């Protein structure tokens, strides 16, 4: 399950007369990931679209434009049926929608202009002056705008080209009437005088009405336009309801037609023959051959050119060598082939696995890497989303999905660890799964459900529900309280530090081992010097750290010979023996030397980061654990208050009798007046825990995602694979005799 689905390269060769039938059948199978012909064979070119492709493409563009105008989606309406007169019906729908859409655009533009004029006239209403009095003068200049009146008057007073002026104000709006001097040189003396003043000028509307009457007319026109716009939208909604399913069906049929018509663009074709190649799941080869034989009989030659190895290899190297058109290679040419007897091609020798008989008798002609079908157990499949967010794995790489499935929700639950939050996370995930129809949306919802389940599990072990111990609520559950978040218990807090380091070591070792396996398939030397070296370096260092060698130089919480050592207290462990520590130190130096040999001096500089720093990155887990626990504790302390009990602060729950205890903090539910503090307590409790809940997603979710991508993936993962996209249409209704379009895992 760490390997993708095994893929086989197949070839179909035949005369161009049967090519449309072959294309139709392959499309129905929805099974073949077609390879693109690169034009390297002498006498063979990329094929041309089948007749009618251009017309179908134009209609498809039209249908999609109509769906966009109607804001139509598959979530709204399921595809319906089409009749023989579908083209005439489509043209009628197009004409009607275009007319309505054009009219809607006109109405929206006029409505925008009306709103703009209403906004422009609003300042003039504050002046209380008829609009026709603010324009049309030859001997004076009139200007209306917004600015500081005192500064405006000072600027006008100081102007040598204004002999008299008057200002009128209303609210923040100022109207200026100014008479220029006889020898004024500027055309707009008021504008020139106000150059240094922050003054926003308003254009005076051209109307003889007063501002109120003018606005009233505009408001009436606005209501008329809005009503017309509603009628247009209602008519479009009616078309959407009546014709939506028809448009979706037409789009589906046209999509299929265009896909089929343009398929020859990926084929190698001559005047009389074609060659098509592609990848299929290896376990579907027999079904593929059977289905194609049922459609065209023996009119085509079907070959399994190779079954791809998981190790990296170059496809079709020999077939492409010397294929520049000189005719010296083994590839067929248009001059020598017979349409009824397709050319026999040499068996692949590039690392594939040619078979006997009908299989393996041809060379790989279209050089490409196998596409990737991730092959995971059902519970892990949603976590493929997290892997693909980085990149699709290469066919030659191990797929980390299962390991992400095993570690991500576990670490998330460890960091949050609260039954109440876990239930809410599961409900959020379930809601996401129900609301979204896309695969990504459902995968995200399932991930949320898994994360919530582990949050509940750890919350049970921590004995926490919204930050309150279940035992304090009278719920004595088995195993509850087995663990402690360590907010006040120092030993537990230190233990979680060690636990996080241990989790990091396991996680990173898994990544390095996967990297070692990946490299081993390509080069033993690379595997030893680039991966085994780091395994020795990292593990050797931490074996020494957790040993009693030089024990006096190490913190007591790591190793020791007394019960004060945390690991001793929890597990009866007081450190690895001294000889084991020395062996670990030797392994560290041996690994560091191997790193230097394999990666040079630059690799030695990375030793502190890879062997030590990456492990310490996992301390962010305990940081989130304590931070989220502390935030929930603070919310509950505000609500319930607290008192000192056995040296620790306990919540003053309503059911407790705290007589005789020292009260540390009076919570809202115990304060007066109760008719104010009780609602306030409920509000603080709800909003406070919602905040902690949401911050838990960003903190625990993103921090663990970072550990997966940066620390874990960096040890083995490159990505960059091509996703398996079979030639076909996923909503196409397959006939009963067609094999399943979705390959099954072996």
Question: What composes the largest sheet?
Answer: 6 strands, antiparallel
Approximately what portion of the residues adopt beta-strand conformation? Answer: 5-15%
Radius of gyration, CA atoms, in whole angstroms: 38 Å
Q: Structural class, judged by helices and strands?
A: alpha+beta
Number of strands: 15
Low-confidence stretches: 313-364, 732-746
Shape: extended
Number of helices: 19
Helix content: 40-55%
Keywords:
alpha+beta, 15 strands, extended, disordered C terminus
Protein described:
The protein is α+β, with helices and mostly antiparallel strands and 746 residues long. 50% of the residues lie in helices and 10% in strands. The chain is built from 19 helices and 15 strands. The strands form 4 sheets. Strands 1, 2, 3, 8, 9 and 10 form a 6-stranded antiparallel sheet that branches. It starts with 6 loop residues before the first strand and ends in a 34-residue tail after the last helix. The relative contact order is 0.12. The C terminus is likely disordered.
How would the blueprint of this fold be written?
Layout: E1 7-15, H1 19-29, E2 33-34, E3 45-46, H2 53-70, H3 86-127, E4 141-146, H4 149-158, E5 162-170, E6 173-180, H5 189-193, E7 200-202, H6 211-262, E8 268-269, E9 273-281, H7 285-296, E10 300-307, H8 317-320, H9 384-388, H10 401-416, H11 419-435, H12 439-462, E11 464-465, E12 468-469, H13 490-520, H14 524-545, H15 566-571, H16 578-605, H17 607-616, H18 619-640, E13 641-645, E14 648-651, E15 663-666, H19 674-712
């Amino acid at each position: 399950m760490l390997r993708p689905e095994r893929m086989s390269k197949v070839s179909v060769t035949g005369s161009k007369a049967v090519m449309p039938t072959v294309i139709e059948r392959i499309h129905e199978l929805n099974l073949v990931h077609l390879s693109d012909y690169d034009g390297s064979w002498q006498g063979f070119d990329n094929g041309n679209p089948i007749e009618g492709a251009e017309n179908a493409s134009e209609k498809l563009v039209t249908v999609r434009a109509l769906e966009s105008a109607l804001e139509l989606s598959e979530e709204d309406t399921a595809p319906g049926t089409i009749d023989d007169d579908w083209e005439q019906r489509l043209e009628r729908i197009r004409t009607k929608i275009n007319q309505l859409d054009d009219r809607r655009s006109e109405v929206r533009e006029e409505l925008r202009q009306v709103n703009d004029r209403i906004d422009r006239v609003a300042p003039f209403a504050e002046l209380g002056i008829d609009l026709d009095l603010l324009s049309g003068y030859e001997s004076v200049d009139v200007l209306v705008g917004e600015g500081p009146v005192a500064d405006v008057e000072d600027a006008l007073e100081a102007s040598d080209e204004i002999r008299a002026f008057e200002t009128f104000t209303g609210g923040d709006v100022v109207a200026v009437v100014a008479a220029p001097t006889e020898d004024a040189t500027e055309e707009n003396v008021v504008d020139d005088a106000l150059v240094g003043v922050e003054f926003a000028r308003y254009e005076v509307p051209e109307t003889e009405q007063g501002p109120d009457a003018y606005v009233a007319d505009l408001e009436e026109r606005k209501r008329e336009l809005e009503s017309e716009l509603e009628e247009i939208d209602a008519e479009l909604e009616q078309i959407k309801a009546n014709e939506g399913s028809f448009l979706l069906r037409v789009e589906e049929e046209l999509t299929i037609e265009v896909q089929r018509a343009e398929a020859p663009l990926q084929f190698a074709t001559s005047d009389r023959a074609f060659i098509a190649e592609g990848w299929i799941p290896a376990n579907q080869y027999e079904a593929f051959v059977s289905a194609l034989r049922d459609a065209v009989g023996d009119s085509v030659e079907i070959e399994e050119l190779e079954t791809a190895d998981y190790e990296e290899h170059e496809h079709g190297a020999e077939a492409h060598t010397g294929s520049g058109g000189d005719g010296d290679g083994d590839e067929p040419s248009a001059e020598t082939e017979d349409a009824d007897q397709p050319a026999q091609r040499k068996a692949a020798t590039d690392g594939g696995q040619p078979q006997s008989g009908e299989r393996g008798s041809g060379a790989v002609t279209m050089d490409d890497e196998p596409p990737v079908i991730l092959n995971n157990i059902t519970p892990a499949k949603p976590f493929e989303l997290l892997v693909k967010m980085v990149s699709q794995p290469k066919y030659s790489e191990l797929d980390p999905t299962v390991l992400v499935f095993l570690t991500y929700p576990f670490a998330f639950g460890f960091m949050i660890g609260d039954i109440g939050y876990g239930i809410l996370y599961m409900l959020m995930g379930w809601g996401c799964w129900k609301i979204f129809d896309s695969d990504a949306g459902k995968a995200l919802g399932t991930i949320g459900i898994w994360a919530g389940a582990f949050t509940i599990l750890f919350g049970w072990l921590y004995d926490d529900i919204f930050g309150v111990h279940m035992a304090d609520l009278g719920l004595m559950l088995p195993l509850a309280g087995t663990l402690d978040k360590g907010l006040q218990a120092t030993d537990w807090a230190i233990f979680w530090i060690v636990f996080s380091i241990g989790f990091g070591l396991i996680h990173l070792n898994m990544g390095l081992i996967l990297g070692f396996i990946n490299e081993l398939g390509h080069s033993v030397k690379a595997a030893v010097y680039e991966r085994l070296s780091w395994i020795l370096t990292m593990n050797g260092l931490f074996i020494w750290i957790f040993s009693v060698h030089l024990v006096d130089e190490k913190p007591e919480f790591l190793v020791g010979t007394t019960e004060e050592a945390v690991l001793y207290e929890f597990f009866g462990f007081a450190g690895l023996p001294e000889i084991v520590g020395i062996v670990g130190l030797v392994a560290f130096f041996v690994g560091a030397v191997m790193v230097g040999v394999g990666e040079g001096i630059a690799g030695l500089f990375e030793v502190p980061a890879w062997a030590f720093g990456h492990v310490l990155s996992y301390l962010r887990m305990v940081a989130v654990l304590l931070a989220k626990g502390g935030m929930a504790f603070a919310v509950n302390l505000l609500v319930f208050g607290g008192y000192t009990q056995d040296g620790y602060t306990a919540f003053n729950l309503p059911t407790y009798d705290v007589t005789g205890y020292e009260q540390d903090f009076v919570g809202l539910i115990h304060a007066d007046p109760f008719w104010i503090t009780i609602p306030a307590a409920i509000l603080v409790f709800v909003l406070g825990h919602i905040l902690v809940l949401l911050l838990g997603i960003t903190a625990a979710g993103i921090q663990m995602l970072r550990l997966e991508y940066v620390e874990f993936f960096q040890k083995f993962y490159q990505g960059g694979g091509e996703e398996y996209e079979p030639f076909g249409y996923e909503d196409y209704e397959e006939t009963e005799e067609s094999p399943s379009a979705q390959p099954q895992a072996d």
